[in-house]
Amino acid sequence: MRPSPTARAGTGAPRTIVWPGPAFLLYSRVMAEDEPATLPPLFAGWFASRGWRPHAHQQAMLAAAATGDHTLLVAPTGGGKTLAGFLPSLVELAERPRDGLHTLYISPLKALSVDIHRNLETPIAELRLPIRAETRTGDTPQPKRERQRRRPPHLLMTTPESLALLLSYPDAAAIFAGLRTVIVDELHALVGTKRGDLLALGMARLSGLAPAARRVGLSATVAQPGALLAWLSPQGTAGACDVRMIRGRPGPQPEVAILEPEADLPWSGHMALYACQALYRRIRDGGTTLVFVNTRAQAELVFQALWRLNDDNLPIALHHGSLAREQRRKVEAAMAAGRLRAVVATSSLDLGIDWAAIDLVIQVGAPKGVTRLLQRIGRANHRFDTPSRALLVPANRFEVLECRAALEALAEMTLDGEPPPPGGLDVLAQHILGVACAGPFDADALFAEIRRAAPYGTLSRIDFDDVLGFVATGGYALGSYERFRRLKQDGDGLWHLASPAAARQYRMNVGTIVATPLVKVKLRNGRVLGEVEEDFVRGMVPGDTFLFAGELLRFEAIRDLTVEVSRGGTGEPAIPAYAGGRLPLSTHLAGRVRDMLASPERWRHLPAPVAEWLRLQRWRSVLPRHDGLLIETFPRGGKWFLVAYCFEGRNAHQTLGMLLTRRMERAGRRPLGFVATDYVLAAWSLREPDDPAALFDEDMLGDDLEAWMDESSLLKRTFRSVAVIAGLIERRLPGLEKTGKQVTFNADLIYDVLRRHEPGHVLLRATRLDAARGLTDVGRLAGMLARVRGRITHRRLERISPLAVPILLEVGREHVYGSALDDLLKEAAEDLVAEAMPELATAAAQTSLPL
Amino acid sequence: MPDPQREPSPACPAEIAVNGQRLLAEPEGALHWPRERTLVVADLHLEKGSAFATHGRMLPPYDTAQTLMRLQAVLDRLRPDRVICLGDSFHDRRAAERLSREDGAHLRRLIQDRDWLWVAGNHDPAPPVGWGGQVVAEAVIGTLVFRHQARPGAAAEVSGHYHPMAVVHVRGRRIAARCFVGDGRRLILPAFGSYTGGLNVLDREIASLFHGHATAHVLSRSRVHALPTSRLSGR
Fold first, then answer.
1. What residues in B contact A750, CB-CB < 8 Å?
2. What does the alpha-carbon distance between residue B21 and residue A816 come to, in Å, rounded to a whole number?
3. What is the DSSP letter of A574?
4. Which residues in A797-838 belong to E strands, given as ranges?
5. Shortest CA distance from A827: residue in chain B
6. Which residues in chain B have their CB less than 8 angstroms from residue A822's CB?
7. Residue B9 belongs to a domain
8. What's the CATH code of the domain at B31?
9. Which of A74, A704, B88, B152 has the lowest CB atom count within 10 Å?
10. Looking at this predicted complex, what is its ipTM?
11. Which residues in chain B are closer than 8 Å to A665, comparing Cβ atoms?
12. How many CB pairs under 8 A join A and B?
């Protein structure tokens, strides 16, 4: 099953191994003094028989296991991390065979578990190890799951959700009693997310059931391993110093370049289609290329553009999270087999099994964060001793600055390090119900256990009690649901599940991924191509066209939860956009962009048109200072424009725009609208803003923010997912709705009622906390307003400044569907009805009034 | 620039004719018949929240209070002598038992000093009698008949049951709102309850009651907008 390396065993001298081969079993050349002392002869012989020697970090992992230390392994992609995690378990089970669950492996990707399992079978079979390894995911058939609980395998590969389910059974204590090791793979992708919160709570539970179990975290290179160490610590704090950190040898410094524009650089836009000719030549002239883009819409467009140029008929594929699973697997397999020249992919390929040799990684559009860029570049790092090669393709002038800043950050290896947010209270509610499903619990003991999970290290007893109250009775001040309790307390104060129905509910609802309702896209009389958000196909009529799965499709009909399409069609196609498709610019990268703007001596590294643009800005206005805020105002087309160079990311700018225009309204400036990018916010009004600096006073985050957040559809959307995760409403399960087996409830109705009658309810608190760091990014906004206090520069100009050109080009060109702006407009829907309908209503009266 | 803090404009009802009678569709979702000093509301679904709670879904228990508050506001504004609740006033047969003392007292206050008709619905085939008011299978007043669910072929009929909502796409945006739907011979009211969702008026169940030509009277914050069903979207 494994392609054989060209270097063969037997010469004794370490050789360079040429891939392809499952990177899971990768070993690089090591020095003779690294000769394994801890590797038992059986394993050493097996390694030697294929001309492989273990990495130093793989041996360090063995040593850590021998002393029983919890361990965090930080190593670049392609460093054989996963085997490093498993090796100690294989060795221990080979030397001391036993029954029962020995090692639990948890990965965020189902597919990863399956692949790891397959790859582990090789050494287990060839070494005839007395080890049974199995996977357990949502796809595992029921009989196998039952058997796994009765007779657990030695090694179990699973996901955070499946672990939560396992822990909710009354026999969890028996299953996990003999557990020795818990391996968490791709830890960097879990920490700071709700899935990570769920898993951290599960780990705290495991530590109670199996105190002897050792924790092992595997992570790609990150800026602040402190957060990962804390997450991994059974005490939930890095200060406990109870986790040993092992760093893999970094590979050679990657060779990263920025695409030099052949023609003039676009002023605005995110799609970088201008560069596709150059991209195509790189693909044609190179070996295998991985083309990363930032959004699925961009993936579809770039893929189309490449195929239009593809006169050589190169095998170029498309990969993103909305495509049908079989389709994605097919692309992955073709890539692994070396049958493709390029794949255009979104973050759907950020994680996962390593592939055959990738010669070049192209990042189309600005990288948005340094850590993610490094991890993407690492996908080309599979020849461990040759540097990765990567090319950044900025889509517009500001993105050139961002790409340049990312390049410098990579050279200095300063990564983004935003500390993980505290754990979600909705996840906590789900966990508490899960704990109750497994058996009665004592609230004090559970609170103590939960506080040992790092995301909940600072959880207050009040929040805990409120969440417990929510799980038990809904937690409403009215107290009217006493009779319908889900949990009740016995005479000893222990909390019990009130009825088995609640356990069924829990098991239907487990998990933290709340997908927007999706519909399948299916060819007429053909296969399913994938899924798009339901909202996207709303309002489509037969004959409308859209771009999906790399094809131009014509909308034919929608039946149940399936959109029927046919190939081809005419007219301007729509492109599905997806909520949350765009990551905001990281704080760290934003700081570097500001620094670069403020340092003309560094502009010589920039393409000539960009440097020229900045020089013009300096001449006509002024450049933003690295620690301040530049605001320009100027008249244009009968309106006044206010442009603020904030560099805090789209989400924060959208919130700022909403607050700013409210203030301008109150000041009688008659604002008309605003538009935001990752870098800049522009608002326009009928009257000149008289004291723009005063508009940015910190107090703007007061009442206006409260009032706006409560009305905001962003909050409603956040509430919907909080309500599902916490178990207030059921998640929409595809297929169940139409059969009437599921009653769905409109979360917006609940939100409105709850906000009016109990604004302090724990789920509303959880919603505001989530939104403050997510869609509204209020936290970042607050940071900026504090930072720029007293450092605001206002320039009143006669006309538009060079730096303001890109944002003004965005005006009126905003993606109407799916962008945050659209959400703001949805709030105005009521007003829109009023605005748009008088004439419609009149027309209706004239044509088809029934009487 | 929308501003949620703006003062609400005064409620502006829309005229609807059924069998020649002049009726007013109020933006709150109630139907006003000035000549008869009668107000009609449909599908209050009182205690729907607690009905979910009995199945372990702890929805906020404030839906009844909110529905009654909204009803009170319309009653205070229009001061009708008679109220007709068009069925499904209580979410289920045991809903009345779950009503809180405060909500129960509030409901009594609304009922007293008025003619109050509880039309039976499918959720409440026998609306509880303890609150005052009169329970009827259907009501005939003047030339109009009031019943819970429309009957195919009937005329001069006012009903509820379907929770109609209209979807309209305006300038690339989708707007969904509760609505009245009628064709001059019959009228279906939107659901009034706080936790009631909606069924698209183009859905066959509703559309088949009208023969192609119907008008949706769509509720917005303070107005009711008439739109022919041909202007609406099914999604």
1. 59-60, 195
2. 44
3. B
4. none
5. B2
6. 173
7. no
8. 3.60.21
9. B152
10. 0.85
11. 1, 3
12. 161
In a domain, B90, yes or no: yes
Query: Six-digit token pair at B36?
Result: 């008869």
Number of structural domains in chain B: 1
Q: How far apart are CA B150 and CA B160, in angstroms?
A: 7
In a domain, B49, yes or no: yes
- How many whole angstroms separate alpha carbon B130 and alpha carbon B107? 11
Q: Give ∠ CA A380-A383-A384 in degrees, rounded to 5.
A: 105
Token pair of B130 as six digits: 């303890």
> In chain B, what residues touch A539 (CB-CB under 8 Å)?
169, 174, 233, 235
Residue type, A185: D
Can you read off the two tokens belonging to residue A39? Answer: 């590797």
Contact B183 A505 (CB under 8 A): no
CB-neighbour burial class of residue A402 (10 A; exposed 0-12, middle 13-18, buried 19+) = buried
A750 with B17: Cβ contact below 8 A: no
What is the structure's pLDDT at B6?
41
Token pair recorded at residue B128: 């509880």
pTM above 0.80, yes or no: yes
Strand order in the sheet with A629-636: A671-676, A681-685, A639-645, A629-636, A792-796
Which letter does DSSP use for residue A443 in this model? H
- For A848, the closest of B174, B195, B228 (CB atoms) is B228
Read off the pLDDT of residues A245-274 as tens digits, 9 standing for 90 and up. 998 877 778 889 999 877 777 877 777 888
Angle made by CA atoms B213, B215, B216, in degrees to the nearest 5? 140
Helix (H, G, I), strand (E, B) or coil at A284: helix
Residues 6+ positions from A662 with CB-CB distance below 8 Å? A704, A708, B3
Q: Which residue has the tokens 């098991």?
A: A507
Check: CB of residue A369 under 8 Å from CB of residue A416. yes
pLDDT exceeds cutoff 70 at A80: yes
User: CA A516 to CA A524: how far, in whole Å?
Assistant: 24
* Interface contact flag, B230 A825, Cβ < 8 Å: no
Closest partner residue to B66 among A756, A827, A847, by Cβ?
Answer: A756
Q: Which domain holds residue B94?
A: 14-231
Q: What is the DSSP letter of A275?
A: G
